[in-house]
């Protein structure tokens, strides 16, 4: 099911550009999900630096379709594979702190990934924790308000789920 993109901060981004602030950098995230008897669950992972709950995400590679970036990041960061949607579920904005200490504004395009396989060993298994949770719980666990709304909306569109 195609979701409406989250537009909440697009006005902020337009104002930022109007007044000469640096443009947002683009990242891509996977929204990993699977069906259970009561609806769906979302997989969240911990970030490597702060340990907060996030979606698998990263920078697109040249000549890589954005949905393929989402699938690659889910594989590398969480050991997940499955069917990635070619249409984004939405987008959100956040400030990323680079290794230099500089903060950059990022716009993150989010692509649903229906998980078919969860690997026992994967590239970043020693650096991250992963957890299946209901969409309601996932929305409460992440820090970015637009991402909270996106996850809640995605969960509601896929039927009943356990809170």
Automatic annotation (TrEMBL):
Q: Which UniProt keywords apply?
A: Hydrolase, Magnesium, Metal-binding
Tell me which domain of life the UniProt entry assigns to the organism this sequence originates from.
Bacteria
Q: Where is the Nudix hydrolase domain?
A: 23-155
What cofactor requirement does the entry state? Mg(2+)
GO molecular function annotation: metal ion binding; pyrophosphatase activity
User: Which residue windows are coiled coil?
Assistant: none
Extract the InterPro entries matched here: DDP-like_NUDIX (IPR047198), NUDIX_hydrolase-like_dom_sf (IPR015797), NUDIX_hydrolase_CS (IPR020084), NUDIX_hydrolase_dom (IPR000086)
What cellular-component terms does GO give this entry? cytoplasm
Q: Sorted alphabetically, which Gene3D superfamilies does this protein's record hold? A: Nucleoside Triphosphate Pyrophosphohydrolase (3.90.79.10)
Give the matching PANTHER family. DIPHOSPHOINOSITOL POLYPHOSPHATE PHOSPHOHYDROLASE, DIPHOSPHOINOSITOL-POLYPHOSPHATE DIPHOSPHATASE
Name of the protein in its database record:
NUDIX domain
- Give the organism the record lists: Aminobacter aminovorans (Chelatobacter heintzii)
């Amino acid at each position: 099911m195609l979701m409406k993109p989250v537009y909440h901060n697009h006005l902020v981004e337009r104002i930022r550009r109007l007044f000469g602030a640096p443009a947002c950098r683009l990242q891509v995230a996977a929204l990993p999900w699977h069906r259970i008897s009561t609806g769906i669950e979302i997989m969240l992972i911990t970030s490597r630096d702060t340990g907060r709950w996030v979606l698998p995400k990263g920078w697109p590679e040249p000549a890589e379709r954005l949905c393929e970036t989402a699938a690659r990041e889910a594989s590398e960061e969480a050991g997940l594979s499955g069917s990635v949607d070619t249409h984004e579920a939405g987008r959100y904005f956040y400030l990323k702190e680079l290794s230099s200490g500089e903060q950059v504004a990022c716009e993150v395009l989010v692509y649903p990934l229906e998980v078919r396989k969860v690997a026992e060993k994967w590239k970043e298994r020693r650096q991250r924790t992963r957890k299946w949770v209901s969409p309601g719980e996932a929305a409460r666990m992440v820090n970015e308000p637009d991402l909270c709304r996106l996850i809640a909306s995605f969960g509601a569109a896929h039927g009943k789920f356990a809170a």
